[in-house]
Design brief:
Helix content is 38%, strand content 16%. The chain is of the alpha+beta class. It has 2 domains: 117 residues, Phosphorylase Kinase, domain 1, CATH 3.30.200; 205 residues, Aminoglycoside 3'-phosphotransferase, Chain: A, domain 2 (Alpha-Beta Complex). The strands form 3 sheets. The chain has a 5-stranded antiparallel beta sheet. A 3-stranded antiparallel beta sheet has the order 6-9-10, covered by helices on one side. Strands 7-11-8 form a 3-stranded mixed beta sheet. A hairpin with an 8-residue loop joins strand 1 and strand 2. Helix 3 runs parallel beside helix 8, helix 4 crosses helix 9 and helix 9 packs antiparallel against helix 10.
């Protein structure tokens, strides 16, 4: 992945120190002030500027490593799919923190007095690796177990006032991704004759997703967003959290993985979410979730920034090919195409 952004997108050390002092003062932990000891760019691409900061909180405090995500003045929510840094901060505070589960510690959110943008300040997980890149054969299965338990824990919390701020996937939201996919891939109709009719046929899957039990979902639960550390999964990047069927997160996690791994993840997820028995419609809901998830990314204008080759002929972007391949496979299993 590419390094994210330029140094100009980050506050100077004086502003950073003042902001962190305000965060920890709110927590009652910065009576002795904050001293910034070091700053390191996050080597992975992110929607927002991020960095790793080492600091000392209080006079004799042990050095603390923080992961800081900075908001931006202009923000593209991708048709209501993602929230900004303030939204993610609320997810950490109101959704994750009360559950006392393995997510990075939430220290607070600070609104920069100079720029007016929010900063999210959380724990930096030293030694963790993205689940997709882990050599541990259990990493994916444990990520499936984590999200299954998370969905089970949040099933009854959905109506609560505290979670009212979360966006909810509705019919218009789902339909929008298929419609945008059709618009973006219309020039490729001759190469992908099955795709545009499938976009029109998405309504059946939408109905199933609207009828499926809802819970709190991560929204982009790919292995790249799940840090694996010493056998434990630590999901991060919660800006796409929403109220929707949990199968969407499982569809994201298992996307493009070999079938044996996918099956293991499906079994572990089902056992973790429904220890008393898996619903009969689980696999049907999962297939509908896979249909949505592929349309979600194929309908993203960012994926189709280059639709024509040097000769002016329509082309399939490299990043789109894996979503096209899986969408075709799902449609075949559902009997939507031959």
């Amino acid at each position: 992945m590419r390094p994210n952004g330029s140094r100009a997108r980050f506050p100077g050390t004086a502003r950073l120190t003042a902001g962190l002092a305000a965060v920890f003062r709110t927590n009652g932990a910065a009576n002795g002030g904050v001293t910034v000891l070091g700053r390191q760019r996050n080597p992975y691409e992110s929607t927002f500027p991020t960095e790793i900061v080492t600091c000392r909180v209080g006079g004799n405090g042990t050095p603390l490593r923080l992961f800081i995500k900075y908001g931006t003045k202009q923000f593209d929510g991708v048709y209501g799919h993602r929230g900004d840094v303030s939204y993610e901060a609320r997810v950490y505070r109101d959704v994750l923190h009360p559950l006392h589960i393995s997510t990075p510690t939430f220290y607070g959110v600070y609104r920069d007095k100079t720029t007016g943008v929010p900063w999210l300040v959380i724990e930096y997980l030293k030694g963790g690796i993205q689940t997709s890149h882990s050599h541990d054969p259990n990493a994916m299965v444990r990520a499936a177990r984590w999200i299954g338990r998370f969905h089970a824990a949040n099933r009854r919390r959905v109506p609560s006032e505290r979670l009212r701020f979360l966006r909810t996937y509705d019919e218009a939201y789902y339909a929008g991704w298929a419609r945008r996919t059709k618009e973006l891939f219309a020039p490729l109709e001759n190469r992908l004759p099955w795709l545009l009719p499938l976009c029109d046929d998405f309504g059946t899957s939408i109905s199933r997703l609207l009828e499926a039990p809802r819970t709190v979902i991560h929204g982009e639960y790919f292995g790249l967003n799940v840090i694996y550390q010493n056998g434990t999964s630590w999901p991060a990047d919660w800006q796409s959290a929403a109220i929707a069927p949990g199968e969407i997160d499982l569809a994201s996690l298992t996307h493009s993985w070999p079938r044996p791994i996918v099956r293991k993840c499906e079994r572990e997820y089902a056992r973790s979410r429904w220890p008393d028995g898996v619903p009969d419609d689980f696999l049907e809901n999962l297939e509908a979730a896979r249909m949505y998830m592929n349309f979600r990314w194929l309908g993203d204008p960012g994926l189709m920034t280059r639709r024509f080759g040097p000769s002016g002929r329509p082309m399939i972007p490299k990043k789109a090919k894996k979503f096209i391949k899986e969408l075709h496979a799902v449609a075949e299993r559902l009997g939507r195409i031959e």
